[in-house]
Amino acid sequence: MKKTKVKKQKTLKKQGCSLFLLLMLLALAPVVLATVILSTTSLRLTRTNLEGSVQTTLHVTADNLAKYCKENEITAMNASGYYEYLDSLKEEGLEMAILADGIPATTSIKNENDYRIREIPMDQDLGTEGYYDKNVVIEGNTYYGYYIPIMNDGRITAVAFAAERKNEITDALWEIEVVFLVCAVGMVILFGVICFFLSRALSGKMKETGSRVDALAEGDLSARKESDSIVREIRNLLQNTSQMQRNLAQVIGGVQEVSGELLNSVRQVAEGSNATTEQAGQISQAMEQLSSAAEEMAENVQNISDRMDEIGEAVNDISVSAEGFGRNTGQQQKGGGRHGKDHDRQQSFCGIREYHYSEDS
After folding, report:
1. Cβ proximity of 216 and 248 under 8 Å
2. pTM over cut 0.85
3. Which of 47, 80, 100, 147 has the fewest CB atoms found within 10 Å of its own CB?
4. Partners of residue 180 on adjacent β-strands
5. In degrees, to the nearest 5, what angle opens at C-alpha 166 toward C-alphas 165 and 169?
6. Where are the alpha helices (DSSP H) in the chain?
């Protein structure tokens, strides 16, 4: 039975999830989830804001270029005069160009051989406000581009173009993503370490409480060292467990005292029962003796009754004899002599002797 009980206890201990793992999961899961959500949202907002900032910058740059070239007719002869202005923002990563019909593009964009390129694609309808294109491919490189028409006498004579390489924005976004990722991992590790020590402390206190309860269940009421916890509920649980141990020790001590007294009472009752049994035996013997005496008394009474009957018969005989003696006396008085009287006296005397003889027998 003990082995079966131990096996059942071990099986129960193995079942269920560990409190330490549960606390770690409850603590880290929200942190990881919140970090992922915040990082993803922040990266998306950062990308959106950065792309919006690029679009605004390119719009302002192209608009300023259009205003700079306004009321001026762009020809192959005077296009080279705009290079200085077109190259003014190159250090900021901004490229500019003037696109006009019939002449090569006038631009600050150069190819890998450090020559200015001569063609920039424009795939959409320009309109009067221009447009923004996120994917302008120039010499194998992708740019964010903004097109704005250059007006002269109310008509479009050329197009002002401003661009910024997309890979620079992508690199900047990647750096931001790396920073967010490092911060997120650092936060998770930091909170993980904090949660580890807190979970370990809490689970340790709960294990201590469980061991105390197991000891109480096994009947171990020995006093243990008082322990404390920073968690109010666990501290109360530890204190209540210790108080329960003390109360159980007092109750069981009282029960043991009462049990001892009860045992003594039972012993006294058993001894009294033995004495009662002996007395009952004595009473039984006395009853037997009394029964025997009653039987003897009944026999004596019967004997007395028989003797009384015999005495009654003797008295009857004496009465008969007395009557005969009276008759004889009368006869003697009428004509009898002394010899007749003597004969009657002898008969009476013989009757009396027979009565005494039968009474003695």
Report:
1. yes
2. no
3. 80
4. none
5. 105
6. 2-14, 19-69, 83-86, 166-217, 232-335, 338-360
